Amino acid sequence: MDAFEYRGKTLFCEDVRIDDIISQVGTPAYIYSKNAILAQYHELEIAFQDVDTTICFSVKSNSNLSICKILAEEGSGFDVVSGGELFRAIKAGGDPSRVVFAGVGKMDREIKYALENDIFMFNVESVAELEHINKLAEEADKTPRVALRINPDIDANTHAKTTTGKKENKFGIDLSEAEKIIKQSARYSNVDLCGLHVHLGSPIYTVDPYVRALRKILALIQNCRNEGLDIEYINIGGGYCISYTGEKVIRPKDYASKILPLVKEMQCNLIMEPGRFIIGNSGVLISQVIYTKETIHGKKFVICDAAMNDLIRPALYDAFHRIWPVNASIKMPEVENPDKTMVKKGMELVDIVGPVCESSDTFATYRALPKVKEGDLLAIFSAGAYGFTMSSSYNSRPRACEVLVDGDQFRIIRKRETYEDLVRGEDL
Ligand SMILES: *Cc1c(COP(=O)(O)O)cnc(C)c1O
Fold first, then answer.
1. For burial by CB atoms within 10 Å, which of 231, 235, 297, 369 has the most?
2. End-to-end CA distance of the chain
3. How far apart are the C-alpha atoms of 7 and 20, rounded to whole Å?
4. Which atom of ligand 1 is the closest one to the Cα of 240?
5. Which domain holds residue 203?
6. Options 13, 268, 304, 357, the catalytic residue
7. Same domain (yes/no): 252, 350
């Protein structure tokens, strides 16, 4: 199903006109489709059902309580990277016994908090961290499950800033170091070292990097078993791609067809940590055009009321997001056409920018867009993941509201911030 589609000339989310939502909540606004979230979740669940699989939604991709609650109610676990994310997962009704905790810099207070809540597993990223968890576990009289996060030195062909599995990255433990830890596992008697974890980066548009990583880990698992350590869980992280351009991309069943045979060979239970795949195309950011301007050099700008503080991906990762008027007399092409010479009548090449005082506050450059004017609404697509969660109030811009659509109903799931919210906690 396509949750966001034009009916006639106007954009809908499920059975609700975007126009109708915006006339009540204003702009900028994030709008999510509940049924798109469920459809993505179930597609993954079905693709991997051949083995015992736990899906742990990556909270950092979208941590809104109502979004997490939808997934908790489906039985999803959660992948958290901080104490704050664990707090959110629990508050949303998530079961702590289905939470995995990754991150290179877990602090003692976060480890204690996770121990108190009996989370499912820590994904450990260094020897130093393992020592801390072991000691804190002894003090708390607990024996937490632990997976070593392996850095397999594999290039997932993603943007340099979203690659996590190469040897120069800060993440994980390299294979030889992991072998050493495993040989000395008796030292860590207060943890149950029963898993291996890998997360290569994101988004990953082929299954090959997963396969190469799992082959390396398969050998390690055999070594572990030779040392008498039973590895029961393989966690393959996240990174499953979505289409940002309308082009066809590989789907969960394509990943599963290559990954599952290796998991079976490992005789492990599977854990996965999807974020983007579930929520990325389940959300849009709606913005209103404030001004248009053309320089004497012939450059055209569309200045809108959303900015890099609302959606930082273009500025941070050169990420591409499709942008199209909410009410459009020209049909949005099925697939983004990169050929700038193909600009049709009624369209123009523009830079779409926000009001923030930074040149990097640019959503798109030389983008073919139907002619727009002040007051028009623009939809920025594929904004559900790493959109609101990465937003800030830079330039003292109150953060956007978030709205959830379910069928022909919608409701605000996070209020727009106010000026008072901006200064909350500041003492004069
Ligand atoms: C960010 C992250 C994920 C989620 O990545 P997606 O590309 O959103 O699926 C999963 N696991 C870990 C450890 C992460 O840091």
1. 235
2. 52
3. 14
4. 9
5. 34-278
6. 357
7. no
